[in-house]
Amino acid sequence: MEEKAIICKDLTKQFGDFVAVNKISFEVDSGEIFGFLGANGAGKTTAMRMLCGLSFPSSGEATVAGFNVFNQQEKIKRNIGYMSQKFSLYENLSILENIEFFGGIYGLSDRQLKEKGEELVNTLRLQKEAKKMVGELPLGWKQKLAFSVAIIHKPKIVFLDEPTGGVDPITRRQFWDLIYKAADDGITVFVTTHYMDEAEYCNRISIMVDGRIDALDTPTNLKKQFSAETMNDVFYELARGAKRSDN
């Protein structure tokens, strides 16, 4: 039986009296596309930062790629890729310079950097733009390049924090084609989003409300469970339930 890519048990993050992530528990299989859905402020990014080794949990347990989030954060970082919506590339560097910079951080040799750089540019069909500054690229191309750079070292897991925010529907679909290819290559994909239609692209999804995981299953089973025609309806019902529990 393959090792679980991620295991969480009662993982919690608290800032003073505010509980940002409240005892979440789940497991992610190797090679799975796992979606973390929820509105802004639901706790998605905070949870991801703990799993990436960027923030210490307040309590609970978790392993990522077999390493403990409390005392093996550096080992976690060497086995994952990470892409943030807000910052992923240096806009004042060219496409090739970004590839060389991040590939170097991930520990690729000069020979690997050259090979991977050429392969990546050809795959994205950016041969003519290879020396162009990233800041000159359309947002959709920046996001696809950032994702490709995040997996250039073939990590066990890649974490994507709302990677398709602000891009048009066609580019979003193209981006998900890249995610499918990564999963086919054996990379586990952990993606946060607030786009309900993107839930359809995941093997399983969890829905976060106020720092809690209020539902976790396949998109099809969640629709049946909540008798909703779309994931928008599912999320709406969960959000209403959260408000009722606070009153």
UniProtKB/TrEMBL annotation:
Keyword Nucleotide-binding: yes
Gene3D superfamilies: P-loop containing nucleotide triphosphate hydrolases
Domain of life: Bacteria
Domain ABC transporter: 6-235
Keyword hit for Transcription regulation: no
InterPro entries xref list: AAA+_ATPase, ABC_transporter-like_ATP-bd, P-loop_NTPase
Signal sequence segment: none
Any Pfam family: ABC_tran
Swiss-Prot/TrEMBL keywords: ATP-binding, Nucleotide-binding
One Gene Ontology term of the molecular function aspect: ATP binding
Protein name: ABC transporter ATP-binding protein
Organism whose genome encodes this protein: Pinibacter soli
